[in-house]
Amino acid sequence: MTVPTARRGVGHAPCHHGEILQGVFLDAGGRRCAGLVTLPMAGPGSRAEFTRRPGTAPERIAVLPGGRTKAARAAALAVAECAPRCQEAPCGGELRIVSDIPVGLGMGSSTSDVIAVVRAVADSYGVRLAPDTVARLAVRAETACDPLMLDARPVLFAQREGRVLEVLGPRLPPVVVVGCALGGGAPVDTLSLPVPAHDASDVRAFERLRALLRRAVATGDAALLGRVASASARRGQQHLHHREFETLTDIGRRLGAVGVQIAHSGAVAGLLLDPAAGGLRHRVRSCVRALESNGIAATRTFTTFPTRPQTNREFPSGPAHRGGHRPTGPDTPRRAARLPAL
């Protein structure tokens, strides 16, 4: 009898830079559900390799580095999803994950791991899973997930159900984001955060912000995008209690930012600048200086629109642009850096 050979698959997933909008919204049937619109950011991400070992028990999945329980759960779920499609028996294997996403800042590090793992398992079976299937598996693996399995189109996503509530449009309005980390870049334990209680008036307020964001996307209005993000960030502040939040918003007002955005389950934040306004380079540098002079760690400056390859580093800011950042290896423990290198 021929012994099946090991089969290897790889998968990748990006990260995001917190949220533009997060709250409770109405779905097409009028039912309330939690939802969010994330701010995409190119660069950091997760890469997974899965090597199947046919003949081994499906629960025998070795993970490097250790401690990635959500990723291991995602691998087992993906095996159970993919094996029957190929008319094969589920099996175990080895899983290796490499990620350079800072942990605990609200950038989707765990979701990125999970999605990369699901894609790696699917690749090992020669299967391409639809985004809604990946979302369903991700929610089962980690209770809630970010919409990193989708393309960069802005969507209102029900993170606890793994479904799109609304595609807001083809792309976000063009803005330049001067990123920073509040609280010294200390990780936020999202499981310890209280679950906000929202009443009918809150839902109406979130629906108004949803309509404004829809209009901002349709018209490419950076100022309106900033208004929505700022309003959502202020609501998030009610349970995050970042001590530098008022300083951040004051810097934005003084230096002509159209708004601020935060991670609603982390410490990452950003000042939003309209690239069409004059003196962009000067305004970016002024924002970075103002942040750092107030003890707020500036991280990376990026855009919501495509740029030439060299403009990825066009706006130097923070430690990530001074000394570079060495990505974690597969045997490197996921521990939070004191200052995030994004």
List the helices and strands and how they pair.
Elements (H helix, E strand, L loop, with lengths): L6 E20 L5 E22 L7 E4 L4 H14 L9 E8 L9 H16 L6 H12 L12 E4 L4 E5 L8 E6 L18 H20 L2 H19 L4 H10 L4 E4 L5 E6 L6 H14 L3 E7 L39
Parallel strand pairs: 3-4
Antiparallel strand pairs: 1-2, 2-4, 5-6, 7-9, 7-10, 8-9
Task: Explain what the structure shows.
The chain is of the alpha+beta class and 342 residues long. It is 31% helix and 25% strand. It has 7 helices and 10 strands. The strands form 3 sheets. Strands 1-2-4-3 form a 4-stranded mixed β-sheet. It has a 4-stranded antiparallel β-sheet with strand order 8-9-7-10. The protein has a two-stranded antiparallel sheet with strand order 5-6. The protein is globular and about 65 Å long. The model is unreliable at 310-342 (pLDDT under 50).
Key phrases:
single chain; 342 residues; alpha+beta; four-stranded mixed sheet; four-stranded antiparallel sheet; 7 helices; disordered C terminus
In brief:
This protein is an alpha+beta fold and 342 residues long. The chain has helices at residues 69-82, 109-124, 131-142, 200-219, 222-240, 245-254, 280-293; strands at 7-26, 32-53, 61-64, 92-99, 155-158, 163-167, 176-181, 259-262, 268-273, 297-303.
